[in-house]
Specification:
Length: about 475
């Protein structure tokens, strides 16, 4: 068994119930007391994870049983939680909401894997005893899921609090570990937009924000009770070793010359899992940050990785940096391996249209895109590699996720796709994964813990390119 790893899961009865606000408040308040807090986000969400990293002052991790095998998930949790005073896991959607009617891959299922107590966040808007019924249903839905306390959110006043507190505690026996009032200033504390919260990179991060979050927790949450609940979590079994049949990424020979991999990192491109960047380093990459907004040239590279983000909100800046767009186009035409996901696909296209204005992009791929007002793909995704490409062998199946408002509105015959979509939307018509030369771009977001072939594949393509120069 592992040493004690105090931990708690913050769950809700649905989306937009206040989980992120409560999680960030707890993390900042505990950190303000001098505690090191390890923070995690259930599911593939980049933005909530980034906010948790900001609040905790250390790298936060995603935990998702669809994206990664359970042994790797547990290994990531144990490694990150070790040494922290407490670990907080922010759930997603409702406690029992998963990818099907059975709740597969739900927050409840993750809590059981982590053997962690769950605090259920109840939205008290225009309800009293019915909130107790919802809590009772979550409590009895799966007795193996340890729902151990509740927090009441959006409470209208003292009388409302008294009635709902009495109902919840009387019906369920669960302690009420916090009561957050319904106030407009709290509802607008974390601004959001079409893909969720504004990213930390685009937010004016004042110390005042951290102070307000910590004050919310100190004034309205039972910090000591929640910490004691986290302390009640039992030890975990040591993570099982990888089966010999599974590929395991091992550190590169330190005497080997590192491969130079650039990646876009700025307000437009922020969607990178820490494990993806870490896996590239372990595979032998020297990572070089590039700003698609301000850098005018590409440094000497053996490969380029362009993650997701919000190129549409930074469209003018990206399009005005014609020097870098030309450099990327010329490098790709010269055979530089380029791997791109979602926002990266948008950048590599000829152009995209957003809010009735069309912006020229790098023109690596003969595509035009449009950003719509509604999601064009959202959820878990699985594809099969059907054709040759620089990074993956044919026949391999990849699991990931997608969340995009853009769609392809025009493509030429001078481009092919290599992914057959088994689950998800992709670029449409059951396809994804545009390949041109050594460039591969898709709407599929991969996590390195679930796709251990990804980093070695990118590094192999980069080494091959360097050797051929």
């Amino acid at each position: 068994m592992t040493p004690p790893l105090p931990r708690v899961v913050i769950a809700g009865t649905g989306g937009d119930s206040g989980k992120t606000l409560v999680s960030l408040s707890l993390v900042t308040a505990w950190r303000g007391r001098g505690h090191q807090v390890a923070a995690f986000k259930k599911g593939p969400d980049y933005i909530d994870r980034a906010w948790l990293a900001w609040a905790s002052g250390m790298e936060a991790r995603n935990l998702d049983q669809y994206l990664m095998p359970e042994p790797r998930l547990l290994g990531s949790f144990v490694e990150t939680a070790a040494g922290a005073r407490v670990s907080l896991v922010e759930g997603n959607r409702g406690l029992h909401d998963g990818m099907d009617g059975e709740g597969t891959y739900s927050t409840a299922e993750l809590a059981k894997v982590l053997d962690a107590p769950v605090v259920l966040l109840l939205d008290a808007t225009k309800t009293t005893r019915t909130a107790a019924a919802m809590a009772l249903g979550c409590l009895r839905m799966d007795p193996e899921c340890n729902v151990a306390g509740v927090i009441l959110n959006r409470v209208a006043g003292a009388r409302h609090e008294r009635v709902i507190r009495e109902a919840v505690q009387g019906v369920t026996g669960l302690p009420v570990l916090g009561v957050i009032p319904r106030r407009a200033d709290l509802a607008n504390l974390l601004p959001d937009r079409h893909l969720g919260l504004v990213t930390p990179q685009e937010h004016d991060l004042h110390q005042a924000l951290a102070d307000r979050l910590a004050d919310l927790a100190r004034n309205h949450l039972d910090l000591d009770g929640l910490l004691a609940l986290a302390d009640s979590a039992p030890g975990l079994p040591e993570p099982a070793p990888e089966p010999e049949s599974e590929p395991v990424l091992t550190p590169v020979d330190p005497s080997a010359e590192p491969v130079r991999i650039g990646y876009f990192s700025d307000a437009a491109f922020t969607f990178y899992y820490p494990e993806n960047l870490q896996s590239l380093r372990w595979a032998g990459a020297d990572l070089i940050e590039i700003s698609a907004l301000s850098d005018q040239t590409l440094p000497a590279l053996d490969g380029l990785y362009i993650g997701g983000g919000f190129p549409e909100t930074q469209a003018r800046g990206l399009s005005e940096n014609s020097a870098l767009r030309s450099a990327v186009r010329e490098a790709a035409a010269g055979g530089l391996p380029v791997y791109a996901e979602c926002g990266g696909l948008m950048y590599l296209a000829e152009s995209f249209t957003w809010l009735d204005e069309t912006y020229p992009m790098a023109g690596v791929l003969p595509l035009r895109l449009a950003v719509e007002r509604r999601p064009q793909g959202h959820g878990y995704m699985e594809v099969e590699i059907e054709a040759d490409n620089p990074f993956f062998p044919a026949g391999l199946r990849l699991r990931g996720h997608e969340f995009h408002y853009s769609r392809v509105i025009e493509e030429t015959n001078d481009i092919s796709t290599v992914y057959r979509v088994i689950r998800g939307s992709g670029t449409g018509h059951g396809r994804d994964g545009y390949r041109k030369g050594n460039t591969l771009a898709s709407y599929l977001h991969l996590h390195a813990l679930g796709t251990p072939q990804w980093a070695p594949g990118l590094l192999a393509a980069a080494r091959h390119f360097r050797e051929d120069e």
